[in-house]
Each structure stands twice: as structure tokens, then as C-alpha cells.
Design a protein that fits this description.
The chain has 1 helix and 4 strands; from the N terminus they run αββββ. The chain has one domain. A 4-stranded mixed sheet has the order 1-4-2-3, with no helix packed on it. 10% of the residues lie in helices and 33% in strands. It is mainly beta. The longest helix has 8 residues.
Length: 79
């Protein structure tokens, strides 16, 4: 995805939207998708964990979910 394509996609989001990126592991991938998710802040995250977790993987209080947009890379599903 080029910068122009990414900017165009981001322009469709409300300005106050939280945008996250995939974390962990090494290297870089092309951006292939922006995906809307509901997440919960993971307060006790280890340094290898992301700061947020999807609701289905979270065992804590689910009442504090927030909508975000995640920038996904080509092999992000393997992380």
C-alpha cells in the first residue's frame, strides 16, 4: 500500500479514531488491510504482548471495550 492509498483509507475514519499496528516479532510487511476491531486495554501486558487484546482473547472485564482500527500486514495472521 502506498502512502497515498493509506491516507485515503485513513480519511474515511472519524478524526478521533484510535489506530493500532500489529506488534511483536521481527521484520516488516506490506500493509494489506485496515480492520475495525473491538479491543480491551491489557494492563498487565508483558513486554512481548501488545497493549491491547481482542475481546475474545481477554479474560478480564469486557465492559471497557473500545473500537479501533488496526493496520494489518501481509503475514500478520501468523503473529
Amino acid at each position: 500500500m502506498t502512502a497515498a492509498e493509506l491516507i485515503e483509507r485513513l480519511r474515511t475514519l472519524p478524526p478521533e479514531s484510535i489506530v493500532l499496528v500489529q506488534g511483536y516479532e521481527t521484520g516488516y510487511d506490506d500493509i494489506v488491510e485496515l480492520k475495525a476491531l473491538d479491543v480491551v486495554r491489557y494492563r498487565n501486558a508483558q513486554e512481548w504482548d501488545g497493549e491491547y487484546s481482542t475481546v475474545d482473547k481477554f479474560t478480564g472485564e469486557r465492559g471497557k471495550t473500545m473500537p479501533v482500527t488496526v493496520i494489518l500486514g501481509r503475514r500478520g495472521n501468523l503473529r
